[in-house]
Every structure is written in structure tokens, then in C-alpha cells.
TrEMBL record:
Alphabetized GO MF terms: cysteine-type exopeptidase activity; dipeptidase activity
GO biological process: one example: proteolysis
Gene3D superfamilies (UniProt xref): Penicillin V Acylase, Chain A
One Pfam entry name: Peptidase_C69
Signal peptide stretch: 1-22
Species this chain originates from: Duncaniella muris
Source organism phylogeny: Bacteria, Pseudomonadati, Bacteroidota, Bacteroidia, Bacteroidales
EC number of the protein: 3.4.-.-
Protein name listed in UniProt: Dipeptidase
UniProt keyword list: Dipeptidase, Hydrolase, Protease, Signal
Record field: catalytic activity: an L-aminoacyl-L-amino acid + H2O = 2 an L-alpha-amino acid
Amino acid sequence: MKMFDKIVLGALALMSVEPALACTSLIAGKNATPDGSVLVTYAADSHTLYGELYNRPGGKHAPGTMRKIVEWDTGRYLGEIPEVAETYTTIGNMNEHGLTISESTWGGRHELEDTTGIMDYGSLIYVTLERAKTPREAIKIMTDLVNTYGYHSSGESFSIADSEEAWVMELIGKGGKEKGAVWVARRIPDDCISGHANHPRIHKFPLKDKENTLYSPDVIKFARKMGYYNGKDEDFSFSLAYGELDGTATRGCDGRVWSYFNRFADGMDSYLPWIMKAEGEPMPLWVKPDRKVSLNDMKWMMRDHFEGTPMDMTKDVGAGPYAVPYRWRPMTFKVDGKEYLNERAIATQQTGFSFVSQMNSAHPELMRGILWFGVDDANTCVYVPMYSSITSIPHEFAQGNGDLLTLSWDAAFWVTSYVANQAYHQYSKMIDDIRRVQKAEEDTLENEVRIFLTEVPALDPDAARSLLNDHSALASRRYVKRYKDLGDYLLVKYMDGNIKKEKDGKFERTPEGMPVSPVFGGYDDRYYRSIVNEIGDHLLVK
């Protein structure tokens, strides 16, 4: 994803001297969810990405029309390709047919990067959403595009899904030596969960299962030619051949997927050697969960900080006196000449936008796809429903309403950041206040959507579309107003390290109208103890 965390992790060739590629995508098949939805999540993490909802209306195009290709990361013009006769409307990373595509970048072997191609990974996603209805169509279109026009980016994993099936495709260029890319795509079993997070996840794959596994004809041959592999075809690992491996790559990348698996499936401790040290058996591409994974589960999974695992970010001294599950960049630091790393969880402070895409064939056609969309840190955002059929983007999420250098109080990104950035400094004290508002908003939205699922089938298409447009707009306004109020409330309540007292939902005053003396929040016991351990009796009361 754009302008990623700069991580230099020792001998990690995958991420050395390059920006760290820092997005997460999780998947749940339709038989792994309680209501038959296919679920795909995405966190677009970047230090320079402003969270907004992209939109490109579909339509008919005359012969000879050209489609400009602009690199998503940089905004740089790369060239033009012929437009197709008809394109579909896109709402963020979903189109009007409920097809969703997300990604995570893993870089891979630097010699395979090709700057001569036209199709960067972002353009590959959004152009394909304009042209495909199903994952299988999308895979063909994506691979045809890079074979025809060249691939401009480095190694990439894609989640590609609709209401019937979900796929993971991994792809890397040929370094300009040959046009196109080598790639593998695997269908995720309907009763399983999967994910990827900046490290290639496809290892061995069946060579003759054409229904569930697709790959470029030269994916193994090219690896042999480049000296990446010399074993038997059936033992070939795409990940080991094209994505250079290091223990920090598995911990910082596969670790996020492991945390997802660990939440819903027993036995994941057996893969901790792989996660922590890149030793032992690689973690599988998918696992069967022990229980169904709901839409709400996926929202909260995107807020994960490794809680309750060996990488729990609230447990070491880096969390400070307020159990803050965040670490400021850079991702590594040195002490006495030794290099150490900060954990990299799913939820992170530099997220531009995230979503949970819900695709369900039993829903009314205009609600076949629902993009539950959030901006800024997934941990503190509210996921607002954007329907695959809407024809206008709510102002609060629209492109052009503020940017990363221009504050806008009616932009969802800025009010969410207003709330989040206060919590980063007194997390354990503020998070319950945030959760109360966040949960109330999301519960309300889920209830409203459940009502629409029963009401929309009785409406004519125009009335139904109008209703859904209005709901996304109303929900966005309500959320932004509520979060601006929440940010103001946090500022007043926790100002100067004090905690204002409340009564009957208001800050408490004396009978004379003065503020009641606040609670002195102080710090936790570990913080005080660390002071004493470092300075001894220097501050001792004698």
C-alpha cells in the first residue's frame, strides 16, 4: 500500500531499504459465516494516504475511447489503454455487481520489478472492477492486462471475491526481461478462512486442479530460469521462490494472519515457530474455523493488536503507563548496537481507509454487496454501509473533502483522527468512552440494514436505490456529528491529565456552578515501579 512504513529489518531482503508494505486482507468463505455471506476485509495502511471513498460511474464507451492509467501510489501518469465498450460503477473496492478486490504488497525479488509496464497494482484493481462481474472474470482480466501492457509494480497478493466464492491471487513481474508476470490463484474453500498481509502466502499448490487453482504456464519454468528453484514441480512453493524469506517477515506479516486464525481455530500455536522465527511448517493458506465468523467478528478482527497472544502490544513497557497498543515509527530501533523491532498488528495508526465487504447472494440484488467502510485507524473508526447500488458518495467520505494536509470538520477521516489521536496518549482511560459511542453507532447501523433487507424487495428499483443512497448519506452525517462531539467530550474530560467527574450524563458542577474537583488519573503501577527501579531513592519521600 502507498508510502508504507519504512522498515529496515536487518537481513530481511524482502523489506530492506524499500518502504515496508503494510496492508492486511482477511477472508471468510460463505459456509464459514452464519448468514452465508462471503466476507473480505482490507486495511489500506499508509503514512500519506487520506481516507476517502473512491467512485467511478460506469457507462457505455465509443470505439477508440482510451482509459488513462495513473499510478495509485504516486498519481503519476503511466499511459493509456483502450476502454471497453461498457464499464461498471465502482464504489471504493467494490463494483455494482458486488465484486470486491483488495491487496497487500510484498515486494519480493527486486530484480523482478519492472518500471516499463503500464499497469500498477492499484490501477489493476480499479480497472478490473470496472470490467469484471465475477472473481474468475477478474483473474483473467487482471492477468491479460499485465501480459498485454506490462506490470508496473512489485510482488502483490490480491483478495478477489463475490457472493459465491473467494480467491487469493499472488503475482510478480518479470523484471522487464519478459513482458507480463508470473502468478498463482487459489480458490478458498467455502467453509474456510484465509488472509494475507505483505508476505506471499501460496506455497505448494495442485498442478491439475483447474477448477480451484489457476496459474501462469511459466510460473515454475521462470523460477528455474532465474535460479530460484531446482526441485520437482510438485514441491514448488510460489512464496519461497518469489518472496524472499526472513523471520521478521513472517512475524511482521504472516503474524497478522496468524492472529486471525488463532482467534477462530484451535491449534495455531503449532505455527508459532514459523511466525516468530520462520522455522518449521509454513502456516497454511486457509484453515477451517471452529465457529462461524460473523460480519461483526470481522470488524473487530480489523481492530486486533495481538491481544492475548505472545505479541500482545499492551504488555511490554513500550505500551507506557496507559497500555497503548501502538508504536510510533520507525519499525525498528537500536540499543547498544543491537536492532529490535516493534510488533506490527492489523490495527495501526497510519491506516487511510479500511472496510469489511459483505457479499451475499440471498440479499436483494441492490444490496448484494455492502461495503462497510471506515477511515483512519480501524480500531476507532465506525464502519458505515455503502451499498453496491448507490449512485452518489456521501459528502463526509467523498474525494476532495479535505486531504491529509487540510483539516475538514465535516470529513469522516478528520473527526475519526481527532478521536483516535487523543486516545493514543491516554488509551486505557479513553478507550471505554470511545467504545461506548462506536458500538452504539455500529449496532444502530446493523439493525437498520437488517430492516432494509426485508423492506427493499417490496420496493421498485428506483425507490429502493433512493432509499439506500439516502441511508448511506444519513449514516455518514450522523457518524461525523457524533464523532466530532465525542472528540470534544474527550478533550474536556481528560484535559491536563485530570478526569472530569460526571453525573446524569453531564460534567458535574458544585451548587455554585464551579467544576467539581476532578479525579487525578496518574499512571499505572508498572510505570511507577520502573521509575523506582531506574533512579532508586532519588524521589523517595523522607
